[in-house]
Design a protein that fits this description.
Layout lengths: L2 H47 L24 E4 L14 H12 L5 H10 L6 H13 L4 H18 L4 H16 L14 E6 L6 H14 L4 E6 L4 H13 L4 E4 L5 H14 L4 E6 L7 H14 L7 E7 L4 H13 L4 E5 L1 H4 L4 H9 L3 E5 L7 E3 L2 H14 L1
Parallel strand pairs: 2-5, 2-6, 3-4, 3-5, 6-7, 7-8
Antiparallel strand pairs: 1-4, 8-9
Helix pairs in contact: 3-4, 3-14, 4-5, 5-6, 6-14, 7-8, 9-10, 11-13
The structure holds guanosine-5'-triphosphate.
Guanosine-5'-triphosphate binds next to helix 7 and helix 12.
Family: Belongs to the GTP-binding SRP family. FtsY subfamily.
GO molecular function: GTP binding; GTPase activity; signal recognition particle binding
Keywords: Cell membrane, Cytoplasm, GTP-binding, Hydrolase, Membrane, Nucleotide-binding, Receptor
Length: 397
């Protein structure tokens, strides 16, 4: 064979060998990359496997058999994952101190009434009558006003009180007796989850109260979920979700005009599935004169109770509405078992006397008071602090 031909054959074989080697190397590189990708994927799946259940489920709720609930789409408004900063709600302890001053204002009729008695002067008939009148303007009501005046007259006369400090002590004692210092005013959140329903006439401050209460519970390290069962007012769900977002609390909401019972049911179901501590349910404002709407409220409670017992039903009453608030209390308690009262707008009314009337009427304690529009302007109702604030204001004025 000619030397040139031999060289050509060797060259060709060499090229083929290089080509095969390159293909093999490329295949190996691809295989390695694919293996690496597969391993990364498996690792990712393994890591995410345990957290999938932490997401609130949006499955359709099981329907109770004897209560027709219209099927509605519900959505869970998770606070945005990338939400940069959450509020740090104020603890109940510090907010109590901050709000104490707001509890009693210098123009508070209750404080004014106390002032006369704190003077230590001899009290004549006219003074006692003025005292009674002032208590009535503070919404204390006829019964409690008469009761308090009688008790005080008796003690002031028998003891011949001339010392302002002694007068203060007697007043403090009698006012506390009237308000009932021993009632359990804690919010019952026991349950798996605890369910707190918030009810009341429109505009009293229900949604605001649910938002503020969520903050109180978050400050106490509770895991909270909100249910926007106020499907009556279009903006209410949005308003509630915004409250939740500020403290990282999700909101379950339905479509506009959805069946409120269905949304409430779904919220408790989602809360249960995700092991939250407390579900707070905001309900639509009721015209307490409309029987149909009030019946619907009873239904919301019954439907929720197919998932979990309702631990607390808080009736929100606007302190500025006076006697009307009392009528509301009466009617609402006929439809749902009210277990506690939230008295809002106490900052704007200073007619704290209504606390006594409402408690007497319902036989349930005022548990929370709203003292402003600020996010943390909700405080546990503490009778001792309330009475001391009244007396201090009286002394200072
Ligand atoms: N000053 C003062 N305003 C309050 C207080 N609580 C609520 N408000 C205000 O009352 C208004 C009505 O409050 P909402 O929470 O929207 O009332 P709602 O009962 O949910 O109303 P509906 O959804 O229409 O039934 C808002 O402007 C609140 O800021 C309070 O304690 N003090």
């Amino acid at each position: 064979m000619d030397l040139t031909i031999i060289l050509l054959i060797v060259l060709a074989l060499g090229l083929v060998a290089v080509g095969v080697g390159a293909v093999a190397a490329r295949r190996q590189a691809i295989a390695t990359r694919e293996r690496a990708e597969l391993e990364a994927k498996q690792a990712e799946q393994a890591a995410s496997g345990g957290t999938a259940t932490a997401e609130p489920s949006t499955e359709a709720p099981e329907r109770p058999t004897d209560e027709p609930v219209v099927e509605e789409e519900s959505v869970v408004d998770e606070p945005a994952v990338a939400a940069p900063e959450l509020d740090t709600p104020e603890t109940p302890r510090t907010r109590l101190q901050r709000l104490r001053a707001r509890l009693a204002r210098s123009d508070n009729p209750l404080s004014k009434a106390m002032l006369t008695l704190l003077s230590g002067k001899q009290l004549d008939e006219e003074t006692w009558e003025d005292f009674e009148d002032t208590l009535l303007t503070a919404d204390l009501g006829v019964g409690p006003t008469t009761q308090l005046t009688e008790r005080l007259r008796q003690r002031f006369t028998v003891d011949g009180v001339t010392d302002p400090e002694q007068a203060r002590n007697i007043l403090r004692e009698e006012l506390l007796t009237l308000i009932g210092p021993d009632s359990d005013r804690s919010i019952n959140t026991a349950g798996e989850p605890g369910v707190v329903m918030v009810v009341g006439v429109n505009g009293t401050g229900k949604t605001t109260t649910v938002g503020k209460l969520a903050r109180v519970l978050v400050a106490e390290d509770a895991d909270v979920l909100l249910g926007a069962a106020d499907t009556f007012r279009a903006a209410a769900a949005e308003q509630l979700a915004t409250w939740g977002e500020r403290v990282g609390v999700p909101t379950v909401r339905g479509e506009e005009a959805a069946d409120p019972a269905s949304v409430a049911f779904e919220a408790v179901k989602v809360g249960k599935e995700n092991g939250v501590d407390v579900v707070l349910i905001d309900t639509a404002g009721r015209l307490h004169t409309k029987t149909g709407l009030m019946d619907e409220l009873g239904k919301v409670k019954r439907v929720i109770e197919r998932q979990a017992p309702v631990s607390e039903v808080l009736l929100v009453i606007d302190a500025t509405t006076g006697q009307n608030g009392l009528t509301q209390a009466r009617i609402f308690s006929e439809v749902v078992d009210v277990t506690g009262v939230v008295l809002t707008k106490l900052d704007g009314s200073a007619k704290g006397g209504i606390i006594v009337q409402i408690q007497n009427e319902l036989g349930v304690p005022v548990k929370l008071v709203g003292l402003g529009e600020g996010a943390d302007d909700l405080a546990p109702f503490d009778p001792e602090m309330f009475v001391d604030a009244l007396l201090d204001t009286a002394k200072a004025s």
